[in-house]
Amino acid sequence: MEQNSHHCGAAMFGGRGPAKLCEPLARLQLEHGPLREQMNAFAREAAEIGQDGGITDWSGRLAELKRKVDAFVSELDPHSEREEGTLFPLMAKYIGRETGPIAVMEYEHDLAKANLKKFREAVEQLEGAVDAERAKDIASYAIQAHAVLTEHFMKEENVLFPMAENILNEEEKAELDRAVGLA
Q1: Ramachandran region, residue 6 (left: φ > 0; alpha: ψ -120 to 50; beta: rest)
Q2: pLDDT in tens, 69-117
Q3: What is the DSSP letter of 128?
Q4: N or C: which end of the chain has fewer CB within 10 A?
Q5: SS3 137
Q6: What pTM was estimated for this model as a whole?
């Protein structure tokens, strides 16, 4: 197994274990844990919206769900910005941006953000009581964002981050260090 030594880790390909990631890539990957926990929590809650036949007005439950989604978005946005603003452009120099992994990652970011925005705006625009069907329709945007991001995080962890570890040079990893706030 060949190892490429970099200031922040060694890429290991051909073995069974995951690639060892340099510190900024490892930090981006670690950020997925708390984001995933928040996301799973709001998705469970969103799936329960509209299910209890005894509830005739779901506006309060949707407002509570929106508070959780808002908290999630406030954590997701800086993470996404570090990827979109630094990691993706650094990688795009080697693998392009119009097609392939970076294009897919950016599309998924946009799709998840669009679903989260639709959910938040729909809740903000509510007036009066919300029946179960309308509540389920609104909650479905949060559920869709969860599905996109669950798959997205797995792709980053299993494909994109190991690829970045392998293709970025020391100078580029140092730039990523600064963007992630480690240097």
Answers
A1: beta
A2: 999 999 999 999 999 999 999 999 999 888 889 999 999 999 999 999 9
A3: S
A4: N
A5: helix
A6: 0.85
